[in-house]
Amino acid sequence: MTVPSSPPSRLDLGVGWIGLKHGFLLKGRSTKKGRVSKKSPESQKSGDNMEKQSTSNANNVFHPQNLNEEVNDSSSRASINIILNHDFSGGLHLWHPNCCDAFVISEESGNSEGIPAKLSGRYAVVTNRSECWQGLEQDITNQVSMGSTYTVCAWVAVSGAHHSISDVLATLKLEYQDSAVSYLFIGRISATRERWEKVEGTFSLSTMPDRVLFYLEGPSPGVDLLIRSVMVSCSSSAEYDGRSTGSICDEDENIVLNPKFDDGLQNWSGRGCKIVLHDSMADGKVLPMSGKFFASTADRTQNWNGIQQEITGRVKRKIAYEVAAVVRIYGNNVTSSDLRATLWVQAADLREQYIGIASVQATDKDWVQLKGKFLLNGSPSRAVIYLEGPSPGTDILLNNLVVKHAAKVPPSSPPVIKDATFGVNIIANSNLSDGTNGWFPLGNCTLSIGNGSPHILPPMARDSLRHEPLSGRYILVTKRTQTWMGPAQMITDKLKLYLTYQVSAWVRIGTGATRPQNINVALGVDSQWVNGGQVEINDDRWHEIGGSFRIEKQPAKLKSETDKIRKRNVILKFSTSDSTTLLGTNVKIRQMQNSFPFGSCVSRSNIDNEDFVDFFSKNFNWAVFGNELKWYWTEAQQGNLNYKDADELLNFCVSHNIQVRGHCIFWEVESAVQTWIRTLNKNDLMSAVQNRLSSLLTRYKGKFKHYDVNNEMLHGSFYQDHLGKDIRANMFKNANQLDPSAILFVNDYHIEDGSDSQSSPEKYIEHILDLQEQGAPVGGIGIQGHIDSPVGPIVCSALDKLGILGLPIWFTELDVSSNNEYVRADDLEVMLREAFAHPAVDGVMLWGFWELFMSRDNAHLVNAEGDINVAGKRYLALKQEWLTRTHGHIDEQGQFEFRGFHGSYEVEVVTLSKKVTKTFIVDEGLEPVAIALKRETDKIRKRNVILKFSTSDSTTLLGTNVKIRQVQNSFPFGSCVSRSNIDNEDFVDFFSKNFNWAVFGNELKWYWTEAQQGNLNYKDADELLNFCVSHNIQVRGHCIFWEVESAVQTWIRTLNNNDLMSAVQNRLSGLLTRYKGKFKHYDVNNEMLHGSFYQDHLGKDIRVNMFKIANQLDPSAILFVNDYHIEDGCDSRSSPEKYIDHILDLQERGAPVGGIGIQGHIDSPVGPIVCSALDKLGILGLPIWFTELDVSSDNEYVRADDLEVMLREAFAHPAVDGVMLWGFWELFMSRDNAHLVNAEGDINVAGKRYLDLKQEWLTRAHGHIDEQGQFEFRGFHGSYEVEVVAHSKKVTKTFIVDEGLEPVAIAINL
Fold first, then answer.
1. Which pairing describes strands 1155-1158 and 1118-1123: parallel, antiparallel, or unpaired?
2. Which H or E run contains 227?
3. 449, 471, 487, 540 from 446: Cα distances, Å
4. Residues annotated as region Disordered (predicted)?
5. Cα radius of gyration rounded to whole Å, the chain
6. What pLDDT, on the 0 to 100 scale, is given for residue 148?
7. 262, 385, 620, 1015 - which has most CB atoms within 10 Å?
């Protein structure tokens, strides 16, 4: 980069700040690579001569304590500012005006004459400048080090100019003892008169000068330079947060323009109303809280009317913003109202989203602060922030609004808990052996001692308390006049911060109660009450009450329970095709994924954030939608159905092989029911309920594994109140009829923690049994799990009780909240261990994990910008703990045994000659599972060969050296190719060397050959076919028809049935007559499991007739079915079983189906799953081809591994006859991150893996001719070259090894 020798001459003016980024690296001391100074010769001799005594403002006295505060504050930041007194809070201390004057303007003193009022606050003024290079400098010699990169940001302005623009520069002066002074340019800004702007840049020192001065300069002589603050931080230090985006100035930058209305209403507007500027209201009773002005609304007629500003272009995706506004309300006799800050976002596709940022109870008496945070996942085309909420007629007042990059919350420190004792009761005189000593009555009630309570500990406390049998005494409380009155004890000095305490007691009520009574254990903490447990009692028996308010102890029994129910004994049985001994062979076992469902809530906007997607897809295997499937989302207004968000989320989950729960069909709590439903009469409500069931479950039949049918029936009764008790059971019955494959769940909260008498385990059991007795097919129990201070035994006790029903239990919405990340991590671990160790629990869903996208604060595992916190790391550590790793050696029985968690595994076997990797799955089960691991490749892709040599002169060949080299494996490995590809000679070279089959991407499809009716275009297909023939490459024909309507061209969709039938016949005749005998295969009607256009318009027989007519027109071609997601188990429409039924149906009606096409667009393939699908399809006896294989991952190594899994499974399976890749060259593939060769011809890791496998599947052998004149070997099918060296001459011959089970004898005459 060329550094200008001097600042360019510009027209200079007034005041302004503009952002500029620049960078440099100092390579040496020579001034040729630095800035040529315009300073006087005297000033270049000595740095001291450059300094002139400043003219200081007498009001700005330097206070050392201010500087100390500044330094301390800076040192606490992730990126430390090396500029001292950076904001001039200490006057000009440590700053030096360079041959000019300077003074500081304080907030109290106000601006000097000629400086606009909008440049408020504290800042330095550099004046009496007679040269461009004169400015303000600070010596940073002792603050910088060689090799580090420093980031610079300064807020500057100019004043006193008469032109429109003036340059401000950031510069380094570098002084060396043995050479001239050099000047280094950092950054420049063209400043205007209107506002503060920032000059930015970076620098790095590769050698260390004797003195380093940082200074700001640049405006023309006579123009004053204004400096508000300067930051220089080391961006390459260990303390620097490398993930941070933006500059070091960003943390102070408000993206709201004119935030205090100093420029009137500029940049502001009314949202559906008017706005007005004020300096006071109500005869001076309403004044600004800060500054001089505030704005108000006028003529509000809707709740959403308010004050707004567009922040498009200034708000960035994946950045957490904090919002602070000073607000109040006025008028309409409203004294208090909810006031909200909302962000309206519009995407490029015009999708709208409303993001609630914060709310506050505003009053007409005082200004209040509204604070919140938000983060955008996607890139908006428009973004508007606005205030709304009060009822129409009530005005919103706004004094100022700040939206800036949120400061990162410093990480929590582990709680320090000294002398903690576990299993010890902290209640004094708990067995009442000393009467009521230690106890006191809370309120005006009376305590006395009675006898006859249970002598055993409550069940929930037995595993956690070390305690003698109870005494049988109890406290009797009488003369109670308030619900809160009862026995109490002071325990302040016995509690330790961050420990969780378990509460357990026996309680009962006296006679005379006419209805159920709630009994609570409560803790008075300062002025707040904390719930320690609750139970509802309606008889005079003793009842257990239990709860908690914090613990860390992990029950010792959990690990053994976990191993018992989540692991299985495994016997791997190894064998080889050639009977080679494997005794002592090294084996390494690595579990890739635990099959236990760990899932999370996800929302539509989340999947626009690639960091969220990366964490989610790597660490969860189930999903549930936050709102997008709820009725109030899919039909907010009657009749206006919106499934777009749910569809996109479902497609995302399918593409990432993630199972999905359906939450929820209905929600029984009235506040969660949309307004239009609440206003319906009984008949219309019943119709709406039936329509909801039919619409949702028909649309998504087979796609959601679970449904929460009617959410929170223990806490709400809207539908039951309006439609009768039977409606709940009928919802389950109708849902089961519409989608029999889905498991139907009840779902409710506070089941597991003992803190809510409405939802105890006992009441939940009664509720479920009642539904079942009415015929409701309840298939699962949902425990939401919004819990604080969980205690393992209490959770376990609830699970034990619910477990007697024999239904699978899922934690459906688990979150734990604590502002201390370590405590949050401990609580999360308690819950996950209890769930994973309990045999009745079948899955755990977190109710989110990403900050700002959770329903509860301080419950996240990952902060808004992607940093994993302590709780997140704990979750990942548990996931790792629950993966099995082991190693050892194969025993004399050819076996290796271990005990491992259920899930998918990879085993690596290393012999002396090769390393073999196989995958397998350990399913649930009590008995040991035996898994046979043998590589079928050698068995089915090789053949024994006997080469029989002879000579014309009967010369003996005994001992003659033989070298065998396979030239090509005959197994079909092909690729998709397009017409434009063959114009690229690099593409042609790779393609022709590494593939022996081809398929055209689009050029044979009907929408390509006849885009407009009657205008046939076979030119591209002809040229591609000629290319393949010239390179001896076989070709598949893809495809004659495509059954999916979106792939059918418009003119065909508009035909009537008769004309459509004629068009179909013409297509068959035109294509198959033209290319008769030239295409080895045809995909006759593509994707019949996923589309039905031709069948819908021409009847069911059309599919069979397409096959019959194609066979008549070209009997030599093998006719294929072809579809996707057959092999991966992620699409219920196209399971192997459904594909088999489909093929058998075609064959039974006479279709000559000759081959099975599996497209193979797959992610994260698991070998055993693929193999299982191939085994099932193999029973049909038809050749199977992977017709469009691609695997996608932005990590090339992962892509290579996935591709290897697929190719090895295909090559090792006897039913598979060929593999076609759906392209290999970047930018010419239908899926991103699936290529093997980049756009400019470089082979990536996946491409090299493909070539390595091709090499592995070529046979090399050598040896000597035996006494029978023969040489034997076992080799892959294909073409070979044999080289024989005898009697001083070398002879080379070629031969072919065809498929076959018997050894093949090949005569070679030398």
1. parallel
2. strand 224-234
3. 10, 21, 9, 20
4. 30-67
5. 39
6. 83
7. 385
- Say whether 927 is catalytic: no
What CA–CA distances, in Å, run from 1278 to 850, 1036, 1079, 1297?
A: 54, 20, 21, 5
What CA–CA distance (Å, rounded) separates 148 from 1294? 64
State the burial class of residue 1064 (Cβ atoms within 10 Å of its Cβ: 0-12, 13-18, 19+): buried
HSE of 214, CA atoms in CB hemisphere, 13 A: 27
Q: In what order do the strands lie in the sheet with 903-910?
A: 885-889, 586-594, 903-910, 915-922
What is the rounded CA–CA span in Å between residue 793 and residue 791?
A: 6
d(CA 331, CA 1270): 107
Distance CA 501, CA 547 (A): 9
For residue 745, give both structure tokens: 């769940």
Helix (H) or strand (E) run with residue 1058 in it: helix 1057-1074
3-class secondary structure, 815: strand
What are 82's strand-pairing partners? none
What are the Cα distances from residue 491, in Å, to 448, 466, 638, 911? 21, 19, 56, 67
Q: What is the DSSP string of 256-313?
A: SSSTT-TTTTTT-EEESSEEEEES-BTTTTB--SSSS-EEEEES--STT-EEEEE-TT
Give the residue, 4 or 1073, on which the prediction is more confident.
1073
Q: Write out the DSSP string of 304-318.
A: T-EEEEE-TTTS-TT
Q: Which of 752, 813, 865, 1209 is catalytic?
A: 813
Token code pair at residue 265: 């209403």
Residue among 629, 626, 654 at smallest CA distance from 644: 629
**pLDDT tens sequence across 1091-1142:** 999 999 999 999 999 999 999 999 999 999 999 999 887 777 888 999 999 9
Q: For strand 543-548 and strand 1216-1221, is the pairing parallel, antiparallel, or unpaired? A: unpaired
CA distance 590 to 925: 20
| Per-residue pLDDT tens over the stretch 604-624 | 999 999 999 999 999 999 999
Type of residue at 1056 = N
Q: Are strands 294-298 and 306-310 parallel, antiparallel or unpaired?
A: unpaired
Overall average pLDDT of the 716-733 stretch: 96
Report the residue count for the chain: 1310
Q: How many CB atoms lie within 10 A of CB 552?
A: 17
User: Which tokens belong to 200?
Assistant: 């930015």
CA distance 184 to 227: 20
d(CA 1234, CA 1046): 24
Question: Does the active-site annotation cover 131?
Answer: no
* Maximum CA extent, the chain: 127
Question: Which tokens go with 502?
Answer: 């378990």
CA angle 652, 655, 657 (to 5 degrees): 110
Amino acid at residue number 661: R
Q: Which residue has the tokens 């329509």?
A: 691
d(CA 648, CA 634): 13
Classify strands 336-346 and 786-787 as parallel, antiparallel or unpaired: unpaired
Distance of CA 67 to the CA centre of its chain: 44
Q: Which of 524-528, 640-644, 1057-1061 has the lowest mean pLDDT?
A: 524-528
* CB-facing half-sphere around the CA of 1111: CA atoms within 13 A: 15
Contact partners, residue 1023, CB within 8 Å, separation at least 6 = 979, 982
Beta bridge partners of 1273: 945
Lowest mean pLDDT among 40-54, 92-106, 310-324: 40-54
The label of the residue with tokens 């604070």 reads 371
Question: Is 873 in contact with 627 (CB distance < 8 Å)?
Answer: no
pLDDT digits (tens, 9 = 90+) for 814-856: 999 998 999 899 999 999 999 999 999 999 999 999 999 999 9
* 679-687 long-range Cβ contacts below 8 angstroms, 24+ apart: 682/722, 682/723, 685/719, 685/722, 685/723, 686/723
Non-local (6+) Cβ contacts of 791 within 8 A are 460, 464, 500, 502, 546, 547, 548, 551, 830
Cβ atoms 943, 1297 nearer than 8 A: yes
